[in-house]
Amino acid sequence: MKHLLAIKDLDRDGIEAILDRAESFAEVGRRDIKKVPTLRGRTVVSLFYESSTRTSASFELAAKRLSADLISLKAAGSSVDKGESLKDTCATLSAYDPAAIVIRHPYAGAAQLVADWSEAAVVNAGDGKHEHPSQALLDLFTLRRRLDSLEGKRIWIVGDVLHSRVARSNLVAFQAMGAEVTVCGPPALIPRGIEQLGCEVSYSLERLGEADVVYALRLQRERMAESFVPSIREYAARFQIDSRRLGPRQLLMHPGPVNRGVELSGEVIDSPQSLMTEQVASGLVVRMAILYELLAAGPQRPLSAASEPEQSPTPIGQPA
Amino acid sequence: MSEKVVLGHDDLRRTLRRIAHEMAEANPEPERLAIVGIHTRGAVIARRLHALVGELTEAETPIGDLDISFYRDDVGAQSPATQPVVHSSHIDFDLTGRTVVLVDDVLFTGRTVRAAVDALFDYGRPQRVQLAVLCDRGHRELPIRPDYVGKNLPTARGERVNVRLEETDEVDEVTISEPREAEAIL
């Protein structure tokens, strides 16, 4: 695997390989010295054209924990402010010979473009309303620790599906691991034809009780040029996950940041069913695993199961 | 591909028992000893040595295991022969002030041991680190020397030394096999 642009680039074995790797990075996080020398001398660029807390912080810490050198750029305060195009920024950064570029951009397909322009391994950290594969992987990691397997589990993705790249990546990822997915929200916020991705669609929370996991999405008011919901209050009345609607055995997830009192009520956020802090902790180790798989596991090695390791001149760690 | 057995079932067990005796003899303070095996088969051998040393010294010796994939010196170079299985390290005791015996199945170039020593120091500061290997097959590329050796095996560079253990391979033996054609280029 050269890049991580979309979840569909990975098969189930590829996903499992990254989650297994993340598990061993979780062990690194419990040591006195939480840093390994794996990516010593290699450069990782983190390029964020959209605001981010968790994703940028965890990718940057992941790169540092792997001993990579990190260049961290935000659109605000860089030459992008002065009107530099994405292509020119790429060409500039390529002069530093980065091993990986982690990019978030408001337009779908931006990560693919960077992958075409640059020699580096590209990680899509969110492109418009398209994909956010590292989020999907960290959610799978979080769920795997709680549920062992997603086979046959029912997951409801609730809220602003239309504007959500997390919904698109997670829908594919959950199904790849054997879960049955239902998307739910007001009709204006459910993309037309989404059932072709193999999920069910519901326009009310009536049957929410059948879900094993409730995955709530943020109402993305910044992406709404026009009015998609009559009012926040009405949206909350019909689609907010609160302690009345969330059953005691259901797990609750949310990619963050939360609009408290809109898609989630305050008491469910702080309830023991909420996996939100675990999701943030998973983000770090899963992103370490992603960088490791792209940069250290060998460019020739496909992430599918049938890969036969080749012999390098002096292999180590192998029965000699 | 011809395969020659160099250590059979009984030989292998006798060899481990001797290493355990040497370890007990060289460490008069067994309570300060710790045993750490390198994944995969080093960890298995470490567990056996741990049991044998425990019988001899009647002291509680902590045991751990180490996965060195994050410390390799060939990361990203071509395709490293990464083990398909992902392991985690488990060292849940304090190394500081202890004599740590690193255990591996085969000592070859010394690169694995270099990586393991690096990894070990991220957990603490042992007073002494020793190395125990079941087989030393020569061809060292680093200044590394084992403290306890099961068997010295003169080999050609292209040959393979196969260590099989009951826990992982259902049989206890060490064999040498001819290089496969692809490996003969080495």
- Spatial shape of chain A: globular
Order of helices and strands of chain B: EHEHEEHEEEHEH
Radius of gyration of chain B: 16 Å
* Element string of chain A (H = helix, E = strand): HEHEHEHEHEHEEEHEHH
Please state how the strands of the largest beta sheet of chain B are arranged side by side. Answer: 3-2-4-5-6
Treating each run of at least 4 consecutive H or I residues as one helix, how many helices of chain B?
5
Task: Average the pLDDT over all residues of chain B and give the rounded result.
Answer: 89
- Oligomerization category of the chains in this entry: heterodimer
Stretches of chain B where pLDDT is under 50 for at least 5 consecutive residues are: 78-84, 182-186
Look up the CATH topology of the largest domain in chain A. Rossmann fold
What does this protein look like?
The complex is a heterodimer of chains A (320) and B (186). Chain A has 320 residues and is α/β, with parallel strands linked by helices. Chain A has 2 domains: 141 residues, Rossmann fold (3-Layer(aba) Sandwich), CATH 3.40.50.1370; 146 residues, Aspartate/ornithine carbamoyltransferase (Rossmann fold, 3-Layer(aba) Sandwich), CATH 3.40.50.1370. Chain A is built from 9 helices and 9 strands. A 5-stranded parallel beta sheet of chain A has the order 7-6-5-8-9, with helices on one face. A 4-stranded parallel beta sheet of chain A has the order 2-1-3-4, with helices on both faces. In chain A, helix 1 crosses helix 9, helix 3 packs across helix 4 and helix 5 crosses helix 9. With 186 residues, chain B is α/β, with parallel strands linked by helices. Chain B has a domain of 124 residues: Rossmann fold (3-Layer(aba) Sandwich). In chain B, helix 1 crosses helix 2. The longest helix of chain B has 18 residues. The C terminus of chain B is likely disordered. Chains A and B meet through helix 1 of A and helix 3 and strand 7 of B.
